[in-house]
Amino acid sequence: MLSIQNLHAAYGKVQVLHGISLDVPKGKVVTLIGSNGAGKTTTMRAISGMIKPKEGTVTLAGKNVTGMDSHQIARAGLAHSPEGRRVFATMSVTDNLLLGAFPRFTRSRPRGDIEHDLQNAMELFPRLRERRHQLAGTLSGGEQQMLAMARAVMLNPEVILLDEPSMGLAPILVDEVFRIIQRLKQEGRTMLLVEQFAAAALAVADYGYVLENGRISVHGPADKLQNDPAVQAAYLGGGHSH
């Protein structure tokens, strides 16, 4: 569904990704774990068109989207919920969600039943239903994170990229975010998850990749990685699980 081959990316002269390859099969949750500075967010930005890869290919649902602009890749079916919860602060929660579906209104994505999906999003994120008329800028950080995720779902995408969905959240909200990811998985959504909580990410994922200094050091089924002594020592020790 989403395939990355030999991806290289840089910021100016600083090479961050050194030829990484990974696959996100349809209906699966794949997680990318690694320490800060390993290149996880750069990978997400290169996939979603926020930065242009230096070399390598990104294929989405059989279509080569390498080097395309973000809005073109979104129309091809990629929803990116970026780190830092970018929401439209001066618009209501409902309008933020409808904006997520914008390519469906313009028919550059299959339209489907937008009203039904809006209700579904409110069910999935009950906090958003309670605050649906509020301006997004008045929401707490946790609620803004829910909104960024819900907006990605509203595109009805082929693949959802979730970049650090638990970042900066209180533990109770981290648990809620992972419950929602689990429910999206049960709905058959295809997701690539970048996450600092490696234990929680591997618990929800089907497959995992470990990124070290811009290279994939190890990958395999998530349960195998959970039991890998090297992965446990580096990523599943103190402070990395909740």
UniProtKB/TrEMBL annotation:
GO terms for molecular function: ATP binding; ATP hydrolysis activity; branched-chain amino acid transmembrane transporter activity. GO terms for biological process: L-amino acid transport. Keywords: Amino-acid transport, ATP-binding, Cell membrane, Membrane, Nucleotide-binding, Transport. Signal peptide: none annotated. Residues 2-238 form the ABC transporter domain. Coiled coil: none annotated. SMART domains: AAA. It comes from the Bacteria. The keyword Transport applies. Belongs to the ABC transporter superfamily. PANTHER family: HIGH-AFFINITY BRANCHED-CHAIN AMINO ACID TRANSPORT ATP-BINDING PROTEIN LIVF. This is ABC transporter ATP-binding protein. The lineage of its organism: Bacteria, Pseudomonadati, Pseudomonadota, Betaproteobacteria, Burkholderiales.
